[in-house]
Specification:
elongated, about 45% helix, binds (2S)-2-hydroxybutanedioic acid, 13 helices, three-stranded parallel sheet, alpha/beta, six-stranded mixed sheet, about 325 residues
């Protein structure tokens, strides 16, 4: 009799699994470091909505914003431990997994977001999505935020204005070299600490997009923002090989199309926020906008562009050429 009970139990669990009657939905975690009213925040919520609508009862997607679950220092490690299934760090934060993505940090490489987009969608850009496969990280798509601006507690008009000042940077050696090039002091810190560092004047400035500067209220603790558009801050949505390849093929296809749609929405929001949040900061009058003349901007270009040569071997000259071609 014990044997037949065991047999029945096995049959019941097989039935339950195949009809998904008693089975709990599988929890998927998406962790990120920004606010919800941002391109990435909205993209993640759209992804949740689409998955739960298309695979009801099978998956729930829980989104953790604002470094609540994991922050800059541990989100990729957590991904590889399968403690989280999706993250979308900025392209500057993958250095430990590949040197190739450093291309996106080269100052004054991309003319504007359209150029960034053309490069990402090109064959070279798409190839970079696979640059971390051997480390167990799968690139599923690029997501935009926008071009970066400098902010500080003094107007930064020409490079010498940055001399001796401390700037918070993301953990990127290229960005460190960019600030070194103007005699500034780069300090690598996680995103979650930036507001307090600025508020307490432990650091003098930072660089970020209009969206991040607005949503994190950096403009309330920085007297000036220089409209420099000197680099790009975009993301790669990634999962782990183990999780992604472990999904049944039909489910994986739903995940991929849902992700693509969520990213398309995120990109649309990124373009809108770039203008809206810039304007909201100007209207707040908390922070003053510094606009650069062409001659002033050229000084920044001249000071920072030599950084490219230092990283050319790691990134690959062919990649840099392809990125430049996207701007012309
Ligand atoms: C930063 O650290 O400044 C950004 O990468 C935050 C983000 O994810 O947009």
């Amino acid at each position: 009799p014990l044997k037949s009970i065991a047999k029945l139990a096995t049959i019941a669990s097989i039935l339950a699994a195949s009809f998904n009657v008693f089975a709990e939905p599988i929890e998927i975690k998406f962790s990120h470091v920004v606010a919800e009213n941002t391109p990435k925040g909205q993209m993640a919520l759209k992804f949740k909505e689409l998955i739960e609508q298309r695979l009801p009862g099978e998956y729930v997607v829980n989104v953790f914003p604002n470094s609540q679950l994991f922050g800059d220092n541990n989100e990729l490690a957590a991904l590889l431990l399968n403690d989280v299934q999706f993250v979308a760090p900025s392209l500057s934060k993958f250095e430990r997994y590949t040197k190739k993505l450093q291309i996106f940090d080269l100052p004054f490489l991309f003319e504007d977001m359209a150029a960034v987009d053309r490069f990402q969608q090109s064959e070279s850009g798409q190839k970079l999505l696979n640059s971390m496969n051997r480390k167990g990280v799968v690139g599923l798509g690029y997501l935009h935020n926008g071009m970066k601006q400098f902010s500080a507690n003094d107007p930064l008009t020409v490079p010498k204005d940055a001399n001796g000042k401390k700037f918070r940077i993301m953990a990127s050696d290229v960005i460190a070299a960019q600030f070194d090039a103007v005699g500034a002091i780069p300090v690598k810190k996680p995103f979650s600490e930036v507001f307090t560092l600025l508020q307490t004047r432990a650091i003098d400035g930072q660089e970020n997009t209009w969206s991040n500067t607005y949503s994190m209220k950096f403009y309330e603790v920085q007297s000036h923002i220089t409209e420099s558009n000197h680099g790009v801050l975009d993301y790669m949505v990634v999962s782990s090989n183990t999780f992604w390849k472990g999904l049944p093929a039909d489910k994986r296809a739903v995940f991929k199309t849902s992700l693509d749609e969520a990213i398309a929405l995120g990109n649309k929001i990124a373009a809108e926020k770039d203008n809206e949040d810039r304007q909201a900061i100007i209207d707040s009058k908390r922070s003053q906008l510094v606009t650069l003349t062409q001659a002033d901007r050229q000084q920044w270009v001249n000071a920072m562009k030599p950084v490219w040569a230092k990283f050319e071997d790691q990134i690959g000259k062919d990649m840099i050429d392809a990125a430049q071609a996207a701007s012309t």
